[in-house]
Amino acid sequence: MNYLLHILVMLEIYILLALSANQNVGLSGLLSLAQAVFYGIGAYAAAITITKFEGSYWFALQVAMLACIIGALLFSYIAGKVRDLYFSLATLSLQIIFFSVAYNWIPITNGVYGISGISNPEFFAMKINSPGRFALFGGAWVLLVILFYIWFLKTPISRLIQATRDDQIAVLSLGKNPNYYKRISIILSAVTAGIAGTLYATYTTYIDPTSFTLDESILILSIVLIGGAGGIIGPITGAFIYILLPEMLKFLQMPDSIAANMRMILFGLLLILIVRFKPKGIFGKYLIQ
Question: With a threshold of 0.90, does the pTM exceed it?
Fold first, then answer.
């Protein structure tokens, strides 16, 4: 039972990550290769606040969100004016810089050894220290974020973000600044990823740089590509496929050592098939370019 609850918690974390990536790639058309950066910023900010300053989860969450907002603002001012391949290259540079800092800034991040002893969250004096409680806690976060994005998609700001994605000149002709709306999108994406990072850090109680690599950023992007970008259902579907695929392999009675590798092989094959036969993804509204 605990194993199934663990799978559920990881599914919730990846749903948040997929929704965060969808905000960039699906709504604003910004192909980011650095989604794991803000995931990592949220995780490290929470871990450092809890372990070094003995802060509560809720205080650590605020610190993590603030760190993600500041990081996203700085990055968007530097790279927000470029598009397409150049933006992707800028995010790739950000990913490399973040991993290098996390790996080498030993006094703060503890380098390759990571940060351990991260305490679990508390909710009204109740310690969320079991898989069942954490599954409910993570589920509440997922529900809140989904409801937020359902509301946000209907707002004028969201429509202008999507208009910026489709035709920046048309947005300029309306007297609007496309870079401003890109900046909003990057910040929203970063904060959502940061929330996922705080959940991951306080659930596993240990983090290290290997959880926030370029591979992780590409994986998150692939989840959105498979499920489909531009809506809510697509990213959630992609997260379900990625997390539940290894469980399906168990019916084939493969050894664990083989099944772990087969998951990525099958996920890669599925990605190729999606790109070839359904470029917008399973439930996609926007073609990632």
Answer: yes
